[in-house]
Amino acid sequence: MATNSAIKCTVITPEKQVLEEQATQVIIPAHDGLVGILDHRAPMVCELGEGNLRIDLAGGGQKNVEIAGGFAQVLNNQVTVLTERASAVS
Question: Is the pTM of this model over 0.85?
Answer without folding.
Answer: yes
